[in-house]
Amino acid sequence: MHQEHDMRPILKHPLNVRIFHYILLLSFLPLAATGLLLFFKPLSQEGMQLTYDVHIIAGIVMALDAVAFTIMAFDRVVLFIARVFSFSGRDVKWFMVLGGYPQKFLLGKKVPIPPMNKYNSGQKLFGACVLIGGTLLILSGLVLWLIPHSAPRDIVWFLGQAHLVSGLVLTAFLPVHLFLAVYRFDDFKAMMIHGNVPYHDAAEYTPLWVKNEIAPVATNGEQLTSK
Length: 227
Description:
It is found in: Cell membrane. The protein is mainly alpha-helical and 227 residues long. It is 71% helix and 4% strand.
């Protein structure tokens, strides 16, 4: 079977990861929207109160989602952390050409890209920002919501700034993440629907992952899976 036409499915995103991602997406979208409204304050007092309430509810959902996934899939969380915080010369080369996306979109040309593992360098950067920024958002949000008048004023101010910066950074990443997710439509379907990517797509975009980690499932030898 020629690699460029190999349609065998590789399980890239198991069901528990997809459920976590659904809830994360559905909670962060209203968080980002209401966060911007709370920052710019364009609404009436009643509108701002409703915005605040929606922000709190969405924040609780996101926090529960993160805690539940960490407890129930701790091994995957550890592996994800190891992946996104790994760094090599390939990452430097990837960022030097920004994954080849500007050249492809603006100039219509394809440039050589260093071989990537399960996540490319841009995804690793985004993943690190989600881990750090998401943790800061949850912890600072809890303090700002539950004990803003009991905690030391300087700590509350610092947490407020951390909450603001983390939220703005992740919100700025969001449109880029959504655009590239749809552009890589096979990967988008894998994360949002069935969890599988075709072998040829994985071999093109993540050759090191395919080479080092993909193994046949013993039941039928046709579907492939990985860590």
